[in-house]
Amino acid sequence: MKRNFSIQRQEQRDAFILVTPLLLLMLVFTVYPVISNFYYSFTEWKGFGTAEWVGLKNYAKAIQDDKFWHSLKNLGTLVLYIPFGVFIPLLLAAILREGLKGWTFFRSIIYLPTILGYVVLGTIFSIIFSQTGPIIEFLSAIGVENAAAINLLGSSKSAIHIVAVLFVIFTKIGFGTIFFLAAMSGIDSSMFDAAKIDGAGWWRVFFTITVPSISFSIQFFLVLQFIEVFARMYSFIYTLTYGGPGFATYTLEFGIYRQGFQVFKMGYASSWAVILFLLCAVIAAFQIHLIKKGDLI
Amino acid sequence: MTSSSYKRNQFLARTGVYLFLILVTFISLYPIYFSFISSFKGVQEFTYSKNTLPSVWVLDGYDYVFRNLGILRYLTNSIITVSFGLIGYLYICNATGFALGMLRFKMKLPIFSFLLFFQIFPQMVIASQVYRICSQLGLINTRLGLILVWITYFGPFGTYIMATYYATMPRSLLESARIDGAHIFQQLFHIMIPMAKPMIGTIGIVGSLAMWTELPFSLLLIQKPELRPLSLGIAIMKGEHGIPVPTLSAAIILSIIIPVILYLFFQRSIHQGSTAGAVKG
After folding, report:
1. Which pLDDT tens digit goes with each residue over A164-222?
2. Is 0.80 surpassed by the pTM of this model?
3. Structural domains in chain A plus CATH codes
4. A253 contacts in chain B (CB < 8 Å)
5. Is A260 exposed, middle or buried, given 0-12, 13-18 or 19+ CB atoms closer than 10 A?
6. B220: nearest CA in chain A?
7. B22 lies in a domain?
């Protein structure tokens, strides 16, 4: 009994030794920054020098700022593309699951863009979609009238939609397909056999067996897509559009960078950061809820 | 009659599926194809021919990025920073993951939730304060600063994956190690880490790719050109006007060689990394 007790205490101490470094790092570089960011959002501050307390002024300014509402509207537009960004990988995974000839090769290829990272992808797409890029050249070659005048990323109407298609759909196809394939490999194959005997068509099997069986993974992927849009887009925007034209492709992340590090209104940028923090906290709560519900920990 | 129309329908469906797959393959490969062919074109040729193979393969772009843009410097910086970052990252993820996945202690669940909660925030939410703290600690323009910030930012996710992995390992391993009198670091390095190798490979690759392609923190913490990692180098080249596309493409190709080779060799681990911690089994 006494020995047991000392083992427990030993384990407690051991665990403490192991988790401390990460917790310390996080206190210094994550938690403290989040908290002090709250403080600075109530000040006028250039990012250096002294900060002057101004109360809620930054927040009042934010809700009157076109850039702020543009950023939120853009995030909304991006969110509207998420269903497609979930459905297409789901469909691809359901097709590949059946083991067509050469499916492993195909699986390798579609994941390849994910490896490149957002800086490289954003840079390449900025060239591909530019007015002097290969798409316009191709359109001119096949005789599209006024192709040279088309400016997909340069027009404030189309830019955010191009960004959405590229970011929410294109860059997630490989990851999503692999993700759903792994989930589908856990479905009991007798369910598919039974459906076949019943004579159910492909789409029926897809909607009545495949999708419901992996609904947990679909919810999880949906949350990941929200995280990507709200919290992982900065590098892509930086290299693809730099928030432009004007602020047509601003997001909260990118707005913080521009206000804070480019025009040195860091106190004001901090108020955006607080709002983004709160939005992300909601998404994080969803994710933690799912992880606990799915018994993943 | 019905049987033949059924067959025809099936044939059409199959063709449709293959066309869809071919389209997706094309879209997936096009960005790399385009950068590759552009990197071997002369500036002249690029202006009038963008989609076809170069008529004359030239190395001007590569020559320029090596000589004038110091790409070798960026490449070396990335290799150094990511390698040291990776060592720290792997230690942190394994030590913390082992504790959270296998050991029994108070505060385990709160710590778990804490990690999960703080791993999703975008760099920009904390960027200004991280910058302020790093300048107070003298970590601006140092590799150490970037490495510490990277480990803190990417560590929680790797830890989570390792914890779910260690949780599936039998606790009897731990008990027999204790009977042998192994202390905690012997338990970690001699017993747990060797057993967890497959998953360590996975998080190692996922983590190094994440650091290799990271931009926001490098952009803020590294202002000296001679310390720039590749991703930052590319982003800055992209922003500078007047760099011709073949030159930029050459830089892109050089920056993706290592990740692409890693992918070719460790595809399985990388695929596993994208589902670990989210899909059971």
Report:
1. 999 999 999 999 999 999 999 888 888 888 888 888 888 888 998 899 999 999 999 99
2. yes
3. 80-250 (1.10.3720.10)
4. 122-124
5. buried
6. A261
7. yes
